[in-house]
Structures are given as C-alpha cells and as structure tokens.
From TrEMBL:
Residues 6-127 form the Gfo/Idh/MocA-like oxidoreductase N-terminal domain. It holds the Pfam family GFO_IDH_MocA. InterPro entries: Gfo/Idh/MocA-like_OxRdtase_N, Gfo/Idh/MocA_oxidoreduct, GFO_IDH_MocA-like_dom, NAD(P)-bd_dom_sf. Residues 135-254 form the GFO/IDH/MocA-like oxidoreductase domain. SUPFAM superfamilies: Glyceraldehyde-3-phosphate dehydrogenase-like, C-terminal domain (SSF55347), NAD(P)-binding Rossmann-fold domains (SSF51735). This is Gfo/Idh/MocA family oxidoreductase. Gene3D superfamilies: Dihydrodipicolinate Reductase, domain 2, NAD(P)-binding Rossmann-like Domain. It comes from Paenibacillus sepulcri.
Length: 342
C-alpha cells in the first residue's frame, strides 16, 4: 500500500524515440504524478503540453529545479550531460533517475553515488532491460540449475552499416560505441555472473567511418575471479553477424537463435542423451523498473537498480577503452566496492 504521494518530472523531451513521453507514462502508471517537463526546445514543450495538458513546462533546468513540489527528476539527455545534470538535480534535493548509460566517466559516476548518499536521496539508472523476457527466462534457467555454472559468455550487437549522423555517433557526446547497447549488455552480464571482475582487455578498430568519431568496432574481454570469461563485441563494420547472446554453462547452454520469435535455444544433456529444444521466453516487463522506483520511494522497498551497479558498468566500459589504447590488461576501479549490501 503506497502511503506517500510523489511527483515526478523529466529533463529532456526530445523527439527521438519519444523517451520523455515513455518515462512520463511509466511514472504515471505506477503512481508517481507526472508534474513537469523541461527541454531547451520550446517546440518540444508544446508537444509535452499536448501529450499531458495538466503539466507545467520549462525551458531552463534551473527553473524546473526551483519547484518545491517536484520529488523526482528523470534525465533524458545526451550522455555527456548526464553527470552535470544529475549533480544539479541531487543538489536541489530531488531524487534522480538517469537514462542509461549513467555517464561517461567513472570518476563522475563515483561523485554522483557519494552525493546521493550524503543527501539521503535516491539515484538510479534506467536499466529497464533487466526485465526483458529472454533475460528473465535465462535467470530462471540458472536458478533451476538447468545450465549449471556459467563459464563463458559471448554477446554481439551490430552489423555493417554507416552510423547515423547525430550525437550518438559523436564520441565527445556519446562516450563512444560501447556506451549505448554495450551498457545494456554489460548489465545483463553482471546480473548473472557473480563476484569480482579480475581484468579487462580491449580492442578498437577505426577503419571505415572516418567522418564519425565513435569507434567502428570494439571488443571487451572480461575475466572474473571465478574463472568465467566474457566477450562483448560492438560493431558497425561486421559484414557477418552472429548470435546476440551465447551463454555456456557446465550443464547446458543458451543461444538466442530464435529470440525475435520469443524463444531461446537450450542445449543440454538428459541421462546421457543430448537435447536441443526451444524454450519459450517470458513476457517483457521493462515497465517494472518504475514499479520498483515507486515502491522504493513510497514504501521503502529495496531499490533494484542501484547506483553503485551503474557506476560499475561505466568503470568497465572506460577501462575497456584504456586497455585498448595502452595494449594492456587492466583491473577495474571500484570493483572492491561492487557487492552492494554484502
């Protein structure tokens, strides 16, 4: 039973993917009153008023943050603005959600974690993909010990296509090729592999799209203390693709060969007989992210997407690039602090 009313707002109401509206609708669905929106573009604020006639709109962040009746602000802006805007939001005494990725630099992520702690405010990152149906199915198979212990993971996103000519292909703004879907992939990985990351290797290719500053192709090789190895590859120059996900365990394996049809391929053994079968994926429940946010703020439930976890992703992404540029295998900052609550 929710006992306190909370009011939310968004900073950023851009037209791409209409994410401002998506966040507002999910806030509202789970009992957070959507109160206000802010965007530098007055035309986008006109659109927000059409979508939600009852809200207030602003074109200056400072004016939005002066409003005393707003409890929560979600930041939906380019990656390089996340850290300074989150600092402003937390500094104003309001809870903060950041669209993924949390930010570009781990040192900024750490500063935000500590700022939120010092002010007793919630800070979270919109890793709603934790509730993808295929991923919930993978976790269920692991919990039922059908796969055994994972020891090798491969993830791939990309193909051969020229990057879109906008801020996501500008490294100064986006952070680089690994910061978009790579952040989701890392979050998937760290949710099923326990323990500390031991080292990271990185490899970068810049061969074709020289008019864009994002990398053409990146590989992150992540080794864990428990011996598990993971390989995440992001590419815009891969003429041949491969499965998005391949999880190998001591008792079975999962490959996403039919994920678009809502199925995973399970490879295992039953009483000495090799078995290959399709497993139906659970329903997608990405909107559950805001259910947890509301439950946390209003009822004190445990926050599922913790800021320390999001900081960890940024540290691994950033370390991948440093490892690639130096040609060295590197350790990851903040790993000693990763096991939140343990």
């Amino acid at each position: 039973m929710m006992t306190k009313k909370f009011r939310g707002a968004v900073i950023g109401y851009g037209g791409a993917f209409n994410m401002g509206k998506v966040h507002a609708e999910q806030m509202t669905r789970f009992g957070i009153e959507f109160t206000a929106a802010c965007d530098l573009d007055p035309a986008r604020m006109e659109q927000a008023k059409l979508d939600f006639p009852h809200i207030r709109t602003y074109t200056r962040v400072e004016e939005l943050l002066e409003q005393q009746d707003i409890d929560l602000v979600t930041v939906i802006t380019p990656h390089n603005t996340h850290a300074p805007l989150a600092e402003q939001v937390l500094g104003s005494g309001k809870h903060c959600i950041l669209e993924k990725p949390m930010c570009i630099h781990a040192v900024d992520a750490d500063r935000l974690v500590k700022l939120a702690q010092s002010r007793n405010l919630m800070l979270s990152v919109y890793h709603n993909r934790r509730w993808d149906g295929w991923y919930l199915t993978l976790k269920e198979l692991l919990e039922k010990d059908i796969l055994g212990e994972l020891f090798h993971v491969e993830m791939f996103i990309g193909g051969f296509r020229k990057p879109q000519d906008w801020w996501r292909s500008d490294k100064d703004i986006s952070g680089g090729a690994f910061y978009d879907w790579g952040a989701h992939y890392l979050d998937y990985l760290l949710g099923v592999i326990p323990g500390r990351v031991k080292t990271v290797k990185g490899f970068i290719q810049n061969r074709l799209w020289h008019e864009f500053s994002n990398e053409d192709h990146m590989d992150s090789i992540i080794s864990f203390d428990n011996g598990t190895m993971a390989h995440i590859q992001v590419s815009s120059i891969a003429h041949a693709g491969k499965p998005q996900f391949r999880f190998l365990g001591t008792k079975g394996a999962i490959v996403d060969e039919n994920i678009r049809d809502g199925e995973l391929m399970l490879y295992t053994e039953l009483k000495g007989i090799k078995v290959e079968t399709k497993v139906k994926c659970q329903e997608n429940r990405q909107e559950y992210y805001y259910h947890n946010i509301a439950d946390h703020l209003m009822n004190g439930a445990e926050l599922i997407v913790k800021p320390e976890e999001a900081r960890r992703l940024i540290a691994i992404i950033e370390t991948t690039e440093k490892a690639a540029l130096t040609g060295k295998e590197l350790t990851v900052p903040y790993e000693e602090e990763l096991l939140v609550g343990k």
